[in-house]
Design a protein that fits this description.
single chain; alpha/beta; 9 helices; 12 strands
């Protein structure tokens, strides 16, 4: 089992398969994607070895991320490779939803169990203003198709003071009759968004207090769950989640490791740099990888230090899929 010196166990791998994204979200890539590095992304064979090695060390959940992972033409093969790896019990993906309506069936056929979809506003005009795309209606239809296929759906919205902070009631009305988990994420500071962060960061704590006052109850997290605090209400079909990286002890329950699209292990989203594990992926038995992972995990720190304004080597969230 992968375990660090603080006793945290890592059941969850977030695997980026590309850093390319076709959206221009104001908090991440306001000027669109710029290629500033070699786009020699992990091959399908390397991904198979990677997932096999993590699974051998106790990882049971893989989330495929980007950039925007659906831009890779071999995405169905990648999902199938993850799903068919012994020990992997859950295959998830995070997407902006651009191809959701047209491609959800083939993702499910490949073995996808759950989806995280980014929707930062339910107002079509505001959605387009944030992302640069008029796709909200199509994405909402895609969510309906995913739910009909039995896919577990989570929707992510980054809390933004100047954009969607007034939409909480609209989000709640949607969740009342829609069986999704809607998660509000505190805006995180990265290397490229200092001014935007200062103008738009909103704490999730007052929202948590509001939910508790309105009769919502907090769920107990599963061992392979993400970092959200989730809440349920008997009158609502869906749930509300809060991801608050600036809250006290946020890192105590860390259970995930990240690998970039070029084969760098990131012990934290805000680590100084990625650690190169790609040479170990040439060993199809994954034994070299397993040994290297045990060695590198000793360098994982207790916290991300984000609360002190430290952003490490993370220029923007598209680098690792958040």
């Amino acid at each position: 089992m992968l375990e660090d010196k603080f006793g945290r166990r890592f059941h969850y791998l977030r695997l980026s398969i590309t850093d390319v994204c076709n959206f221009k979200c104001d908090y991440c890539l306001p000027d669109g994607y710029t290629c500033d590095s070699d786009r020699d992304f992990l091959s399908l064979n390397e991904i198979q070895t990677l997932v096999k090695g993590f699974a051998a060390l106790g990882t049971s959940k893989v989330r495929v991320t980007g950039g925007e992972p659906t831009l890779r033409k071999d995405l169905p093969e990648i999902l199938a490779a993850c799903a068919n790896t012994h020990g992997i019990e859950h295959v998830a993906m995070t997407t902006n939803g651009y191809r959701l309506e047209s491609d959800i069936q083939q993702w499910v056929d490949a073995g996808l169990n759950s989806l995280n979809i980014s929707i930062d506003s339910l107002d079509p005009r505001m959605f387009e203003a944030i992302t640069g795309h008029d796709k909200l209606t199509s994405i909402l239809r895609g969510i309906d198709k995913a739910l009909a296929l039995g896919v577990k759906v989570k929707v992510n919205a980054v809390l933004l003071k100047q954009y969607n902070a007034s939409e909480l009631n609209q989000f709640l009305n949607w969740v009342k009759k829609t069986p999704i988990s809607f998660r509000l994420i505190e805006l995180m500071q990265t290397g490229d968004n200092q001014t935007f962060f200062n103008q738009n960061h909103v704490s999730g704590i007052p929202i948590k207090e509001q939910l508790l006052d309105q009769g919502w109850s907090q769920l107990i997290r599963d061992k392979a769950a993400g970092p959200a605090q989730e809440f349920y209400h008997p009158d609502f079909d869906g749930r509300i989640g809060l991801i608050m990286p600036y809250s006290k002890d946020f890192c105590n329950t860390c259970n995930r490791l990240r690998v970039s699209a070029t084969g760098k292990l990131h012990l934290c989203l805000f680590a100084d740099q990625g650690l190169d594990i790609r040479p170990s992926l040439q060993d199809v038995d994954s034994l070299l990888l397993e040994t290297q992972l045990h060695e590198l995990l000793g360098d994982k720190e207790a916290t991300h230090w984000l609360q002190d304004g430290y952003t490490g080597g993370t220029k923007h969230l598209a680098m690792l899929g958040g």
